[in-house]
Specification:
about 400 residues; Immunoglobulin-like; TIM Barrel; 2 domains; 8-stranded parallel beta sheet; 7-stranded antiparallel beta sheet; about 20% strand; disordered N terminus
Length: about 400
């Protein structure tokens, strides 16, 4: 049994003063909540071995500069191949625009995170409109989600003005409306706390009026998983201030350095615990999709490009996904350092997920007939009425011996 789950006989202990409370969506968690990036999808050995519902195509070789390297040259082969993979697996595809080709760039010699000139806006917006129109026409009915741009608040990704990005967002919205009205547009997605000022300006300029969905990248540099809640709340607050709280909010890219020891296992959370707590907390705070970056990344991936699998983090993702999928969360609250989420599992069983935010031990009461599962694979009926939890989430299921379908 892992060190994060200890069993004690005796009476349950009481908690501390409540310090936080979330109100999750009142609906079952869908498979579409679980999103992924997979840049090396061309190699069957590097494709994900976990189930997920939606695939974001970024760093996948299908940006504007790669699809249209010259004004009269189109290279759709890799995107066609990606869609064949997605169709075979049943993935929904989110195609993200970005990386202006040098021939169309306003500043073709400017440095960027990718090729020269690729962060600049187009010199002529008609070129961008033509690109969007061609893609929308070719993939009408096959790609239903388009994201306007990747991390536009970063000068290495976009060096244009907020007004230029608003104009590009309007173009995507209008071209999709003409060619494929069923397609939905995701706003350009900024990243981290430092992009909040840009996000405010974009909304104030009316950018979100041309989007169906709000995108944000909820990366944090903290070893404390719960610090992500602060950023989610700040973004949600800005949306509310602008009358946009009803629009879906998606985390279109986020991850944790599970492959870097000094980041993977902090004093606050193990790599596996970090993955588990992020999955739970994003849904509980109202984020409707969470695209992990990336399956096959050297630092943030569940599988290193060399082929090495990070088993503990991957196992935690699988188990928490199984806990969540089809379940309806009633609430998540923090009492001192103890987090507790009440939920109804997909089979109707009452359950809760508990963990401590600071990696210290804390006691939690359970029913004598309860079953428990931790994120490392332990499952069983302890036969006691309290547990000590430490950092990593534990599922507690209040069911009788005849009903244990969740264990299978």
């Amino acid at each position: 049994m892992c060190a994060g789950l200890l069993m004690l006989a005796g009476a349950s202990a009481s908690g501390a003063q409540q310090t936080d409370r979330l109100l999750p969506p009142g609906k079952p968690v869908p498979l579409s909540y679980f999103g992924m990036h997979n840049p090396r999808f061309h190699d069957p050995a590097m494709r994900p071995s976990i189930e997920f519902g939606t695939w974001r195509l970024w760093d996948a070789g299908v940006t504007w500069s790669q699809l249209q390297p010259k004004k009269q040259e189109w290279r759709f082969g890799r995107l066609d191949f990606a869609l064949n993979v997605a169709n075979a697996k049943g993935y929904e595809v989110l195609l993200t625009f970005g990386r202006t080709p040098s021939w169309a760039s306003e500043k073709p010699g400017e440095r960027s995170f990718y090729g020269a000139g690729e962060a600049a806006p187009p010199r002529n917006m008609d070129d961008f409109a033509h690109f969007v129109r061609q893609v929308a026409t070719r993939y009408a009915g096959r790609i239903r989600l388009y994201e306007v741009w990747n991390e536009p608040a970063s000068s290495g990704m976009f060096s244009g003005t907020v007004d230029q990005m608003v104009e590009m967002t309007r173009i995507v919205d209008e071209e999709m409306g003409r060619v494929d009205p069923q397609a939905r547009v995701v706003c350009p997605s900024p990243a981290k706390h430092e992009s909040l000022a840009w996000f405010r300006r974009f909304l104030a300029a009316g950018g979100a009026n041309h989007c169906d969905i709000i995108g944000y990248h909820f990366y944090t540099d903290s070893g404390q998983p719960e610090d992500k809640l602060k950023l989610v709340r700040e973004v949600s607050g800005i949306l509310e201030e602008n009358g946009l709280a009803s629009k879906p909010l998606w985390d279109t890219e986020s991850g944790h350095a599970i492959g870097v020891p000094k980041y993977a296992d902090s004093a606050a959370a193990s790599a596996a615990g970090h993955v588990a707590r992020w999955l739970i907390l994003e849904w509980a705070s109202g984020v409707e999709r969470f695209y992990w970056y990336a399956w096959d990344h050297d630092r943030l991936g569940f599988k290193h490009p060399s082929g090495v699998v990070r088993d503990k983090a991957l196992g935690a993702y699988r188990r928490v996904q199984r806990w969540m999928l089809g379940s309806t969360f009633k609430s998540c609250s923090r009492m001192g350092q103890m987090w507790s989420c009440e939920l109804s599992l997909g089979n109707g069983d009452a359950a809760k997920i508990v963990w401590t935010a600071d990696n210290r031990e804390a006691e939690v009461g359970i029913g004598a007939e309860a079953w428990v599962e931790d994120i490392y694979g332990y499952k069983g009926r302890p036969g006691v009425n309290r547990l000590i939890v430490k950092g990593d989430p534990v599922l507690i299921v209040a069911i009788d011996a005849a009903s244990k379908s969740w264990m299978n």
